[in-house]
Amino acid sequence: MNNPHILAIDAMNLLHRARSGFKLGDHYVAFNFLRGLRALIEKFAPTRVYLCLEGYPHIRHQVFPAYKANRIVDPSDIKKVTELNDFFKQANQTVDLVKNYFPISTIMHQNLEADDVIYNLIVNSWSSIPWTVVSTDTDFIQLLDFQHVNVYNPVKKQFLEPIKDYVIWKALRGDSSDNIPGIPDISDKRATEFVADPTTLANFFETDPEAFVLFKRNVQLIKFIRWTDEEALLLQSSKPERNWDAVKECFNKWDFKSLSNNDKFFSTFDPLFGAIT
Question: Quick check: 252 pLDDT over 80?
Fold first, then answer.
């Protein structure tokens, strides 16, 4: 019997990575994602798996309306719109397959992002049960303050290392991937120096109050959001299922010949996923 171990997967993060893998047919995102999922289960042997989906970041948009605005595709760019629509169609099909036929719980909070959901689940979990979070998003470094949590980057195939005062450093530098501008004229080196010397940072903000306003805003955007008891009730979670016949039928429908005709591949499913509840 496996020791208790919870695996939390940042779904959209990994689905986007699946876009850049093997591309053939109309369901290559699912093909790449499921191969990666199987490898993660094999590596970590979890007893519970959460596939964490994205809600709408209402709170962060209230703080900064341009949050993640860089990800909006120009409607006149027909090629990019078509590619994005195709991706989301494939992503939804992939999530539905996992949700309906795998012993994995899909979870989502309509008003929070996946990283906030994972954070809140960990905050409310037993510290005696280890968690592994799977994502390439470095914001999860914040979770390394918890002794029972590791964060694994599946692209680099390595665990993230703790960074002292990560939120302060990133609030100073900003985050271009989320369209969060940094404090003007603060380089990586200077941000590191400020983190190492809080007195110098405080003196800097005294001389530049506008920079302090931007810094406080960035902290709100980067730091995980703790939900209230009322907000926790809005969490949606699916019940883990297990139906390999349906998975194989879907693989046949999607023309995944290398998987659907591979009896050895399917024969490993039950022992591989067998410990997950």
Answer: yes
Distance CA 116, CA 107 (A): 12
- Domain-by-domain residue ranges, the chain? 6-163+225-273, 166-222
| Dihedral (CA of 220, 224, 229, 235) sign | positive
What is the CATH topology of the domain spanning 6-163+225-273?
Rossmann fold (3.40.50)
* CA distance linking residue 102 with residue 243, whole number of Å: 7
Strand (E) or helix (H) holding 239: none
d(CA 21, CA 196): 40
* Bridging pattern class, strands 105-109 and 235-237: antiparallel
How, if at all, do strands 105-109 and 6-10 pair?
unpaired
What are the residues facing 131 on neighbouring strands? 6, 149
Whole-number Å distance between alpha carbons of 170 and 267: 46
State the pTM of this model: 0.93
Q: Per-residue pLDDT tens for 57-103? A: 999 999 999 999 999 888 898 999 999 999 999 999 999 999 999 99
